[in-house]
Amino acid sequence: MAQNRPQEVNVYSGRHYNTDKQLYSEFTRRTGIKVNLLEGKDDELIQRLKSEGNNSKADLLVLVDAARIYRAQEANLFRSIRSAELNKDVPANLRDPKGQWFALTRRARPVMVNPAIVKPGLIRSYADLSRPELKDKLCLRNRASVYNQSLTADELVRRGKPATQQWLQGMLANTKRPFFTSDTPMLRAVGQGQCGAAVANQYYLARMLQDKNSTERNTASKLKVVWPNPTHINISAGGVTRSSRNPEGAQRLLEFLVSPQSGAGYAAANNEYPLKGWGNNPTLKAFGTFKASPVSMEQLGRRNREAVQLMTQAGWE
């Protein structure tokens, strides 16, 4: 690194976990590069970087969900970098083809059912959520959920527009109203028997199962994870900002975070999956394994607007 570069890296992060901070401290111990962390909501961080422009102090931007990462890329907030280490540790479908951002963790969005209401064997794919047997038994998070937007984009890429439209109409016809604004209360509703099935990120159920409150754990224990074939996955990801004053240091931090050893800790912080394999999280291991959708994160981001349009037309509130 050039001598005139400041020995610090400023991170704008949409993640909020103490384990992340521990990893940043370990990076500083190994490299001598101080990490300054600014946490916030993803969309607010994107807007902040856009407002700050070239005067932004951010060196690394960490966001959750492919759609948000793509949105930041469209706003020209990242710079392209070349790194053999990043290309080795991050699978091609989990990084930008131009090297502007790279996945840090994987998260899955399976179907979670209450077997007392819905037989798990009824659901083998997301398409099965439109089966007439699920009438008034399905609960969903609202259209504003970027996770559901990316799920719809996944279906759109794999199955095409007509099939996705038909799926949306059938699934929404099965959905109990109102739509939920968060995954956790939605999963409580399934566990309490208000719904028979829901689509949610795996870490929400994992958190409930690990909760100190026995009532929460008991409710969560009533749910069974069903892995559609294939299962939609998403990511948290990071990229070196265009405004970075220390791009070399930011790249070193990114390489550190995606390395198998550090990446395991980064994923464990939120009950997420590492970039490769299943990790050692006992709660996630109990959920079983899945066949991941082949759709790339870049495709999810690129088809987001079309997905939202189809969701709106179908009446997903």
UniProtKB/TrEMBL annotation:
Query: What Pfam family does this protein match (any one)?
Result: SBP_bac_6
Q: Name one GO biological process term.
A: iron ion transport
Q: Which family does it belong to?
A: Belongs to the bacterial solute-binding protein 1 family.
What keywords are assigned to this protein? Ion transport, Iron, Iron transport, Metal-binding, Signal, Transport
Upper taxonomic lineage: Bacteria, Bacillati, Cyanobacteriota, Cyanophyceae, Synechococcales
Q: Which PANTHER family does the record match to this protein?
A: IRON-UTILIZATION PERIPLASMIC PROTEIN, THIAMINE-BINDING PERIPLASMIC PROTEIN-RELATED
The protein in question is named: Iron ABC transporter substrate-binding protein
List the GO terms this entry assigns under cellular component, sorted alphabetically.
Answer: outer membrane-bounded periplasmic space
Gene Ontology MF terms in the entry = metal ion binding
Residue numbers binding Fe cation: H16, Y203, Y204
Q: What species was this sequence derived from?
A: Cyanobium usitatum str. Tous
